[in-house]
UniProtKB/TrEMBL annotation:
It comes from the Bacteria. The lineage of its organism: Bacteria, Pseudomonadati, Planctomycetota, Planctomycetia, Planctomycetales. Residues 5-85, 130-224 form the Cysteine-rich domain. The gene is lutA_1. GO terms for molecular function: oxidoreductase activity. It comes from Gimesia chilikensis. GO terms for cellular component: cytosol. This is Lactate utilization protein A. Transmembrane segments: none annotated.
Amino acid sequence: MAPKVGLFIPCYVDQLFPQVGIATLKILEHFGVEVDYPESQTCCGQPMANTGCTNEVGPLAKRFVEIFKAYDAVVCPSGSCVSMVTHHYDEYFQNDVDYENLKGKTYEFTDYLTTVMGVKQFAGRFPHKVGLHQSCHGLRELRLASSSEVVGEPFGNARALLESIEGVEITQLQRPDECCGFGGTFSVAEEAVSCMMGEDRVHDHEQAGTEVLTALDMSCLMHLNGIIRRQKKPIRVMHISEIFAECL
């Protein structure tokens, strides 16, 4: 029997990048997952938490748990939103069995594909030099890839999936796990610093020869794509689910 997954689509993806949600759905269904999209879902509360409005997060957290608790797993194409649910909801739940169960079965999209579904490679062809941006939440909270400040054997399932696609060449960055500068409301409160950090990231991909810039978080890509478009850089931006979908 196919696992039944609740598809959690972040607000900004729903409003600005619906093609990412559609690509995520296509890939999950391609691998035999029964996917349901609960239309009553709302924001996970991360923007409020980032700005210190913690009282406003509580109702959203409780609503999230109520909506998604019945599924075998919850999958989301955003490491930052998954991190919010699994790492920052604890203060709103005291010994809550539903939340503890949900926390253990909420996954970032590529993490679910590799660790739960056991996907090791993708068929198809994508003949491009691909630059992989490692977003901070996915890297340092969800531990989806190794970070340069930690000693140990390098790992990264998303990179391995990309490398399995015929024609993909992963570009080599000078600073492979540096923040893009978006940081949600940080980009509003510290606009100049945010833009400078983003420009540094774009420049690193440019010197590496990146043709397609991808990531596990569309929020980071939204920030970087704004810089790329304003500076008229010849770099295409795609969420990793879009690359996978193009390979089908």
